[in-house]
Design brief:
- By secondary structure, the chain is α+β, with helices and mostly antiparallel strands.
- It has four domains: about 160 residues, no CATH class; about 80 residues, no CATH class; about 160 residues, no CATH class; about 130 residues, no CATH class.
- The chain is about 45% helix and about 15% strand.
- The strands form seven sheets. A four-stranded antiparallel beta sheet has the order 12-13-16-17, sandwiched between helices. It has a three-stranded mixed beta sheet with strand order 3-2-7. The chain has a two-stranded antiparallel sheet with strand order 1-6.
- A hairpin with a 2-residue loop joins strand 12 and strand 13.
- The longest helix is centred in the last third of the chain and has 20 residues.
- The N and C termini lie far apart (about 70 Å).
Length: about 575
């Protein structure tokens, strides 16, 4: 299903002229070998482009005849190769092998171009016939770039006017015929993607640009060990999963194109998220990026709010002057690096409108009172960061949990239990809860708890007057901490640093100690402040119906405790000093 969706995306991208035609691929090219009519090398032109800051240069991205995948052995590409194949030069200390590479390139170009009576084809063949590989290391045009050649820089051919020879129409047609003849001679099997009888791809295309994967590219489909091969398919590589050469080219071209579009590739931990609409219209990607990550500069917050309101109606709508179809299929593919291969972390597909409605519902669950002066969204990358220690060397959340969270959001499923467990672990380690963690706890229980669950009483944006005991205990702890701070201005360590975690798990053991401390703190205050906080403590304590505090709180109740603490803390801090003084003086 993944390969089929990607192959269909290639067709949609091809209609928009966004991807190369069949038999061509995108490659990084550093230099052009300039040949005269006699095949002599007369110049070496750098094709590198400067970075936006002008400090670095990078190879140009060019459409060239499709590159072969070199698992091992000697195999030349046509009209785009490194110095070993085009110049007979490298610094690996294996001159015999290097010459074999050059001869392989020479043989391939003669095979494809010998029958073409074309000046550009002739200059290429003359170059291979007269080039002296032994003199490459001392050639005046090559010496200045030996360092790049040693690093594997790719080369192409051009004429004196700077025209790339691989763009010559007759040469391109010769390449097309060569590819077609090779395919017609190949053994045919039933393609799992298209269902047609066609030549099967033995080696699948390399997918480039995934962070953490090999820079030369990694495989989405590959077999190189007996343990990975099907019975009766020993040593047959790609025939273990028969995908036609055409389908393999299509899915590789589509995926490489989308990964190169960094604006529409996001990362969750080590997982790269690639997402696309069935018709390849980028407006769907823009809306998805802005909704899920909150960092798409093509859509403002006001525009996004208008779009989400329209999506809520369940019909098509307009965005940025373009028609957006609610029912358009939308795909999300999660890929993570695994040495020379890629692991599929997740693959989601649904109607675009339904996905966006689910995402909007998730964002509404996250709504919670924030510290004064803060009005922020909680995009998924920020949400997941709350599950990891941001002071550790590895700040990324666990990949399986991250993928499960995204799946639950997009498909409107229950949040994974691991999300809540990781948030509790961070709260215990940090002895505090910020608005992000409080929002996650609220959203988690709104989705995962039952309608008649008492926990739902406290899943509010602001402080709740619920008498749910764990929640009230959290509120009480926040007031006790404020009492301590008021009695001891400038105190560095409060009861939260010492008792926060234990109060949430064993309140019967901790709260008598805290209430006793509070009496000492009240005595240090002015009469007005003492009366005010004593009244506040009494008011919240009276909401606890049981005579004795619970000996232990389970994990769910601990979440209610932390939420109560956060709500009450915000309520205390958002009261203006004037209002507090008025209440004290009453």
């Amino acid at each position: 299903m993944i390969l089929q969706s990607l192959a269909e995306q290639y067709d949609a991208l091809a209609e928009r002229e966004k991807v190369s035609k069949i038999g061509w691929s995108n490659a990084k090219v550093s230099y052009a070998l300039v040949l005269d009519a006699q095949g002599q090398l007369i110049e070496m032109i750098s094709l590198k482009v400067l970075s936006p800051d002008g400090k670095k240069s990078f190879p140009a991205q060019l459409w060239v005849p499709e590159q072969v995948k070199k698992a091992s052995g000697i195999k030349s590409n046509f009209l785009c190769e490194n110095a070993s194949y085009f110049l007979g030069y490298d610094n690996k200390g294996k001159p015999d092998r290097t010459m074999q590479c050059f001869e392989a390139a020479k043989e391939l170009h003669h095979e494809i171009l010998d029958e073409i009576h074309n000046s550009n084809a002739e200059r290429i063949l003359k170059f291979f016939d007269i080039w002296d590989a032994e003199q490459a290391v001392s050639n005046e045009y090559i010496v200045p770039i030996l360092k790049d050649l040693d690093a594997g820089a790719n080369l192409v051919f051009s004429d004196e006017s700077g025209n790339y020879l691989h763009k010559d129409k007759e040469i391109a047609d010769a390449w097309k015929r060569y590819k077609s003849e090779k395919s017609s001679d190949a053994e045919k099997e039933r393609c799992l993607v298209t269902g047609e009888l066609a030549p099967i791809a033995i080696l699948h295309p390399s997918i480039k640009g995934i962070r953490g994967a090999q820079s030369s590219g990694a495989s989405l489909v590959s077999f190189n060990a007996a343990s990975s091969e099907s019975y009766g398919k020993d040593g047959e590589q790609g025939k273990n999963a028969p995908v036609s050469e055409l389908a393999a080219f299509k899915y590789g071209a589509a995926l490489n194109y989308m990964i190169a579009d960094t604006k529409h590739v996001q990362y969750i931990g080590d997982t790269a998220l690639v997402y696309w609409a069935e018709d390849a219209d980028p407006i769907y990607q823009d809306i998805f990026s802005a909704s899920l990550y909150g960092d798409d500069d093509t859509i403002s917050d006001d525009e996004l709010h208008a779009i989400m309101r329209q999506i809520g109606t369940g019909g098509d709508f307009n965005a940025d002057g373009m028609r957006v179809k609610y029912s358009n299929k939308f795909y999300i593919l999660g890929l993570s690096p695994n040495a020379a291969r890629l692991s599929v972390r997740l693959f989601l597909q649904s109607e675009f409108g339904e996905m966006m409605q689910n995402l909007n519902t998730h964002n509404k669950r996250l709504e919670i009172v924030q510290p004064m002066g803060t009005e922020k969204k909680l995009p998924i990358w920020m949400l997941l960061n709350e599950t990891a220690n941001q002071n550790a060397s590895n700040k990324t959340p666990p990949a399986p949990m991250a993928g499960a969270v995204l799946r639950s959001i997009i498909l409107n499923l229950r949040y994974p239990e691991s999300l809540y467990e990781m948030i509790l672990l961070r709260i215990r380690a940090e002895h505090d809860i910020n608005w992000k963690k409080a929002a996650i706890i609220k959203a988690f229980f709104l989705k995962n708890s039952k309608e008649n669950d008492k926990m739902r009483e406290v899943l509010t944006v602001n402080v709740s007057e619920s008498k749910y005991e764990p929640y009230v205990l959290g509120r009480l702890f926040a007031i006790l901490e404020m009492v301590q701070k008021t009695a001891n201005p400038g105190i560095k360590a409060t009861i939260r640093d010492k008792y926060f975690t234990s109060a949430a798990s064993t309140p019967a053991h901790i709260f008598p100690i805290l209430l006793s401390l509070a009496q000492h703190h009240l005595k240090k205050m002015s009469d007005g402040s003492s009366v005010y906080y004593d009244k506040l403590l009494t008011q919240v304590q009276n909401m606890i119906e049981d005579v004795q505090y619970p000996a232990r709180l389970n994990l769910n109740d601990q979440g209610a405790f932390y939420l109560g603490y956060y709500h009450e803390k915000q309520a205390l801090y958002t009261k203006s000093e004037k209002n507090v003084e008025e209440e004290i003086n009453e």
